[in-house]
Amino acid sequence: MLQCLGTPTSIHSCTRASHKRRILQPRMNRYLIGWLTQPRALTPNKRRALELAALEEQNEAAPLTAVKQHQKDHAEIHKQQKEDFRPDEVDWLATGLCFIFPAIGGLLFGYDIGASSNVLVSLTDPQLSGTDWYQLFTFQNGLVVSMSLLGALLGSLIALASGNKLGRRTELIMAALLYGIGAGGMGASGSLNPLLACRVLYGLGIGFAMHAAPAYIAETSPPSVRGLLISLKEAIIVGGILAGYYAGYLFINEVGGWRSMYGVAAPLAVLLGVGMVRYSLSASFHCVGRFVSQPLPRHGDVAEAYTVRQHTFLCCLMQGV
């Protein structure tokens, strides 16, 4: 500006230049801002980098979307199952067959209790015993009655240690086998020692049956009648006691009637074994064969578990698996 103070011409030139700058500077600023802000075409490298970043974000979000969709579908399935499930409706065919065979194990337990007193009367009678070893001491009489209880104690301890590995169904099959061998052996015993040994075998069957039967019934029965069936199994034990007394009434006046009292239990043991092998399902190890291969779900509501159990049982029953 000091250089423009020398001559009038120079002053006029500086004034005109300043005026041009004041006019052109805003235009230049607008052009510069527009140039800086206008979109430009991306280079191939930048475009590829942006595409890879977007693809990674999409892959990270995909599992979360799949999980949410799975949870939604699972919730809808359970909602539909709860709507379709009616706890008051019981399939008595499947439920009854799952109950009746384990209940026979309790019936045989009660039968032994009821028959033992009449067995002693028949066994120690000189005219009705049919043996030459009918003269038993008081201690021997106690052994005849109590050896089955000793076997039941041993059987319960064995079942307690290995029951979960064997499964309820296997335990009941073993109980049926021990019942059958014990009952048949007692009916055919020719002396006291084989009779006592067979009493122990019969007692082992009691131990296995009393350990497995309540759990089997509870695991295979619907919730609405579960308590009823477990209580009914206890009532069947009492019915077995009554049946034992009735068998004593029938055979007490026969020679060797004690053999018949014990031997009557053998056909029931066979029925228990055939029923558990042929028709009933295990509550822990389910029917897996050509027609059905569907274990119970480990997690889920009661409706789902009961529906699968009953469906599996009916399929196995119809196909004879």
List keywords for this structure.
disordered C terminus, disordered N terminus, mainly alpha, single chain, 321 residues, 77% helix
Q: What would your notes on this structure say?
A:
There is one protein chain. The protein is mainly alpha-helical and 321 residues long. 77% of the residues lie in helices and 0% in strands. The protein is built from ten helices and no strands. Helix 3 runs antiparallel to helix 4. The protein is elongated and about 140 Å long.
What is the strand and helix layout of this fold?
Blueprint lengths: L7 H30 L6 H41 L7 H32 L14 H29 L1 H20 L4 H29 L5 H26 L5 H7 L1 H14 L23 H18 L2
Helix pairs in contact: 3-4, 3-6, 3-7, 3-8, 3-9, 4-5, 4-6, 5-6, 5-8, 5-9, 7-8
Short description:
By secondary structure, the chain is mainly alpha-helical. The chain has 10 helices and no strands.
Q: Into which percent range does the helicity of residues fall? A: over 70%
Task: Give me the number of helical elements.
Answer: 10
Unreliable sequence segments: 1-7, 283-308, 311-321
Average predicted local confidence, pLDDT: 76
Rg from alpha-carbon coordinates: 44 Å
Structural class, please?
A: mainly alpha
**Global morphology:** elongated
